[in-house]
Every structure is written in C-alpha cells, then in structure tokens.
Amino acid sequence: MTSEYVPTTEQVRDAHAEMRYLSSYGLTGRDEANELFDRWLAQVSAEARRDALREAADERDRYAGDADVVSRWLRALADKEQP
Question: C-alpha distances in angstroms, 38 versus 10, 11, 13, 48, 75?
Fold first, then answer.
C-alpha cells in the first residue's frame, strides 16, 4: 500500500538544503543551497505554466478552429513566460 503523504514545497526545500549542505558539492552553506532550489523551482513552475497555456491553446483550437484569437493570445502568453 502506498502512502498518501505528499511533502510541502518547504519540506522539500529544507531537505534539499540539508542534503546539499552536508554533501561535498562545494556550496558554502544552506543559503546557497536554498537559492539553488528556488531557481530550480521557479524554472519548473514557469515550464508548467507554459505547458498549461499551450495545452489550453490546443484545446481552444480543437473547439474553435485554428488561429482563433484566444488561442493565439494563449500562445503569446506562453512564449513570454519566464522563470
């Protein structure tokens, strides 16, 4: 049986910092490890937003036909998305 437990972002961030702090990656400490984790999380979140916007645009195209103004707008938003 699998557990339903899902750690919070803060718990994962703390565990990452602890692991990086205790390892030999050349980091100076927890602050640097936290910054590294925060950059990674921002990148993953931005990628997820881009994917969701593109998926919404594709769904809109299936509903309203290619080159719909809403789907073009969604794709433009996806292209602007930065981490």
Answer: 10, 13, 8, 15, 26
CA gap 46, 23 in Å, rounded: 28
Task: Give CA–CA dist 80/83, Å, rounded.
Answer: 10
Q: How many residues does the chain have?
A: 83
Q: What are phi and psi of 29, to 5 degrees?
A: 165, -170
Query: Half-sphere exposure of 38 toward its Cβ, with a 13 Å CA cutoff?
Result: 6
Contact 83, 45 (CB under 8 A): yes
Structure tokens, 15: 């565990």
What are 1-47's pLDDT values in tens digits?
Answer: 467 888 888 888 888 777 766 565 565 577 777 788 888 889 999 99
Eight-class DSSP state of 66: T
Backbone angles phi, psi at 61, to 5 degrees: -60, -40
